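Lecture 7 notes: from sequence to structure.

We start with a single chain of 317 residues. Read the sequence below before looking at the structure.
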Amino acid sequence: MAKSTAENTYLRLKTVLEVLTEGVWSGDALNAGQVLAEATARVPFNEHEAELLSGGIPRGHKTLTSATAKLVKAGWLIKGRSGWTITEDGMRATVAFPDVDSFAAALDAGTPVPADTPVPTAPEGFVRPVSATAATLEVPAKEAAPKKTAKKAPAKKAASAVGKAAKALEDAVEPVVKAVRKGKSPAKDKAEAVAAPVETSTAAGAAEPFEGPDVETLPQPEAVAVVGDFNTFLGAPEDWAPQYDEAQMEFDFLDQLWKKSAELPAGYYTFKIALNRSWDENYGAFGTFDGPNHELHHTGGTVTIRYNHATRDITIN
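Now the structure, written as tokens:
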């Protein structure tokens, strides 16, 4: 029987702590995107969680990032600009609450880790596991799974999208993302998200719902557009219009950045970042709300624009 969103999310939260613990053992530093990608690779999305919301973000990813606030509240995880750090109590929690039911109950009830629980140490001969996401790095792009295979396994497709490293599956994911964006408006996506069944943990009683807006420390918008005087070069009907698909950026889960690459002729261009397909929230130079335009002096060829929603920074190369 398939696990519910709540059960899967608690299991992924426990996996987040396990991944960070393994990082302590191996000395590897993982950023938030890598930790989340690994957790979703080990606990794949079910069909409901694999549904892509605006911006191509799987529903399950937004649910998981929201839920990580519980780990912070429990004192098991620290989120900083340099990345995520597991506390000793967080490491001990993986031992004190070994199954998903006890873990969920402790997390929701605020149960402290028993004082006599030891900090887990690496098993003899420990080697960091190679996840399904990492393994796909070894698969040549020409061996990408055919579209029909991805269609039969949406959970695997979504987990690969989260990991980014699954380059071999990008060709299968991209048409689905485009179809979602062209076939549904952001307002419709939001309505469907609200209408989706809200699942709670049976293990912890009346726990907080695991469906809803992303309340992670650094929440992401539904969509981000790079809007300027070059949008027609991207195929948009007009310039300076944030509603068109051609202006939308793609969210990189691993880097936690929004990105847009395009071929532009040599010239001087100006642009701004607009959120959620409107001008209601937009950022200009120096990350200023409704600020002056960004400037781009381009010599011609491919240019990649990156937007960091945490800092409002823009990088171009």
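The beta strands are 77-80, 83-86, 224-228, 250-252, 257-264, 267-275, 282-283, 294-298, 301-308, 313-316. Keep this in mind for problem set 3.
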